[in-house]
Write a structure and sequence with these properties.
Blueprint lengths: L5 H19 L9 H6 L15 H25 L6 H13 L2 H7 L3 H6 L3 H25 L5 H12 L2 H5 L3 H9 L9 H13 L4
């Protein structure tokens, strides 16, 4: 356990997570190391181990933060509206996830390895944030569409989110490969993919 006030501990954890997030914008998961993360923090690389034992724990904390932010936004959708049409709810949730592209990118990663290389206490914290996001979406479905099978919606929608990023964001190398393979494809926006899925799950207009 690191020495210092809870505020200092929280501040340093946040700095480490922010450093990881910054690197992830230009580097791949496999190329990011504790050393690389330490190089863009204000304290020594070895100090990181006082807060996170592996880089997987840091990425898990980043995803946890993204889930917490998205859950709060989704909860506010239910709290701030008396009623919503399928189109309105689909649009609201699609816009909320559109602003959390980082979450969708993280969801496209191999979670098994990330969770396997994290301590149980870190994994419990992450699962709590994930659970909150499930409950936030449930609150919207149950309030605005009480006749819709809420658990079926959750069962389809959350696994669906794991594939949104690869279908909406592609590197130049990936695009070139698809062209050379004469692959029939058209990239869609994050908003359009999520909106379409929710509309179909709610039985609204496409």
């Amino acid at each position: 356990m690191p020495k210092g006030s809870p505020e200092l501990t929280a501040s340093r954890r946040e700095e480490i997570i922010n450093a990881c997030e910054k690197l992830y914008q230009t580097m791949s998961f496999k190329d990011i190391t504790i050393k690389e993360i330490g190089a863009v923090t204000s304290f020594t690389r070895t100090s990181i181990y006082n807060y996170f034992q592996t880089k997987e724990e840091i990425f898990l904390a980043l995803m946890q933060r993204e889930y917490e932010l998205w859950a709060a936004e989704t909860t506010s959708i239910a709290a701030e509206n008396d009623s919503m049409s399928a189109e309105e709810l689909a649009s609201a949730i699609a816009h909320s996830l559109e602003s959390h592209e980082q979450l969708l990118k993280l969801l496209a990663m191999n979670h098994y390895d990330m969770e396997e290389h994290s301590r149980l206490e870190r994994l419990i914290e992450f699962k709590a944030a994930y659970s909150a996001s499930l409950d936030a979406v449930r609150s919207c479905i149950r309030k605005f569409f009480p006749d819709v099978d809420c658990e079926r919606f959750i069962f389809v929608f959350f696994p669906f989110l794991f594939g949104v990023y690869p279908y909406s964001v592609a590197t130049e190398k990936q695009l070139a490969a698809m062209r050379e393979a004469k692959m029939q494809f058209r990239m869609h926006t994050i908003y359009d993919i999520i909106y379409s899925c929710i509309i179909q799950l709610l039985g609204g207009k496409k």
